[in-house]
Amino acid sequence: MSVSVQAQDFDIATEIAALTGARKDIGAVVTFTGLVRDTAGHETITDLELEHYPGMTEYALDMIEIKANTRWKLQASRIIHRYGKLPVGAQIVLVVVAAPHRKDAFEAAEFIMDYLKSEAPFWKKEGTPGGGKWVDAQARDLDALKRWS
Amino acid sequence: MSVSVQAQDFDIATEIAALTGARKDIGAVVTFTGLVRDTAGHETITDLELEHYPGMTEYALDMIEIKANTRWKLQASRIIHRYGKLPVGAQIVLVVVAAPHRKDAFEAAEFIMDYLKSEAPFWKKEGTPGGGKWVDAQARDLDALKRWS
Amino acid sequence: MQILYFAWLRERIGVPREELESTALTVADLVAELRSKDPRYDLAFADMRAVRVALDQQLSDLDAPLAGVREVAFFPPMTGG
Amino acid sequence: MQILYFAWLRERIGVPREELESTALTVADLVAELRSKDPRYDLAFADMRAVRVALDQQLSDLDAPLAGVREVAFFPPMTGG
Question: What is the pTM of this model?
Fold first, then answer.
């Protein structure tokens, strides 16, 4: 289990290799990568600024990872979330989960992403030709949490 | 959309890069990697032999990928499945799915894996200290299919 | 027609494929014909609940007609992924 | 105590953090005190349904007591991931 909150980019292959290493007991690895899209609805996006709450962010990600590891039989997990100003196409977040069986790996990765959307102190501001706009929290992201309770 | 049935190994980072390329409209990438585990229940596994039905395999994977792309709004997808004798720890299968939103990417990747388990003509033979054993189909893999119908 | 066998069906029957002239109307008829041919086939097809069939590379079933079919494959339930 | 503001709350209030001596017993009392201080605060806290609060970096709510709390953070609903 490990989390990183960082400005710099990450490399998925490196992160997977670091998790699985020379282990021979892992059956399934699921990764999720979130990227900056060039549109939001009908609006053109030029970049994305991610603000966060240093200290609380790491604590919240640790808690989410612990919850996932308590609920599913995982062998390894990793969360990386970037902050700062990111160009369109850039990687924002990475979740990697390793487990003996695929169902656990899929569910835990989706659980982590659902919690991350609503319980990690990040705020997105989309750059548009008309200026920056704070992204509103989505009702569907809160709905996504309900399936886990 | 593309599928490969091959003896050689694959590189996840290369496959993701080939899918996303210079695109700026992708919001979520989910990958699943299946690996050869060193145990099955209480049994020690020394290697895994994967037999397949050339011709039908490619057709079945194509059909599964088309089903997933019909059901979810995907931007790109890729399936690689290996055959032949694989050592413990080796990669067996890779599914990569790119979509505007995470829910579609997660569901489509899980759907593809569930179908692949029961509808792609592969058969696994586990090497054990006592000799080779054909893997039995799991009732839970058939159950997994039911959630999609 | 071409008959293909995979996994333990291939091992029990002893060949991966064979050419066969048959007048069987359905898959079930063909299985009966094969079982009467040799004890190896009789053993391999003893429990048909454990056997799946594909006709010209598409999953099918025991009742399916064989008219026009060029390739019949028998195999256990699939275990890919 | 330290008061922190994030995202559009930070922008409306104009500072990311400030030190404040307060006798407020609850978060709601503190919000009332801030709103009476300056129109910028009054505007920022006009719709409390859009405001979340963390006490010493743990999510909390408006009724929570402030006794012993060193750091209060106000922010909109989170949009990570």
Answer: 0.95
